[in-house]
Design goal:
With 121 residues, this protein is mostly beta strands. 0% of the residues lie in helices and 47% in strands. Strands 2, 4, 5, 6, 9, 10 and 11 form a seven-stranded mixed β-sheet that branches. A four-stranded antiparallel β-sheet has the order 1-3-8-7, with no helix packed on it. A hairpin with a 4-residue loop joins strand 7 and strand 8. It is globular.
Length: 121
């Protein structure tokens, strides 16, 4: 079960850190990532990272502002969000893919958290 935390309301230009507590998958090959869904829009990939942290992917809209990281000792995924914009508003979901390969494609991910709200005004 994936459990997100850290969402909230922030002014434009501010920062937030999202966390996602994940199970110990007991394997070396998996991918975890963050997706978001803005009001009235579909869910989109924001960032993802491979199990060892060697490979990460970012949506063009967040490159240079967001940073994804994975603490394997705590089984926790993070998303550091800086220079936030109103268009970053949405529900942010943590997701996991328990097979090789990493992407930002929603169908590739099998497990999902409940989401945490981020509002930028």
């Amino acid at each position: 079960q994936l459990v997100e935390s850290g969402g909230g309301s922030v002014q434009a230009g501010g920062s937030l850190r999202l966390s996602c507590a994940a199970p110990d998958y007991g394997r070396n090959s998996y991918c975890v990532g963050w997706f978001r869904q803005a009001p009235g829009k579909g869910r989109e990939g924001v960032a993802s990272i491979s199990a060892g942290g060697s490979t990460s992917y970012y949506a063009d809209s967040v490159k240079g502002r967001f940073s994804i990281s994975l603490d394997n000792t705590k089984n926790t995924l993070y998303l550091d969000m800086n220079s936030l914009k109103p268009e970053d508003t949405g529900i942010y979901y943590c997701a996991a893919r328990l097979s090789t390969g990493c992407s930002l494609s929603e169908p590739d991910f099998e497990y999902w958290g409940q989401g945490t709200q981020v509002t930028v005004s």
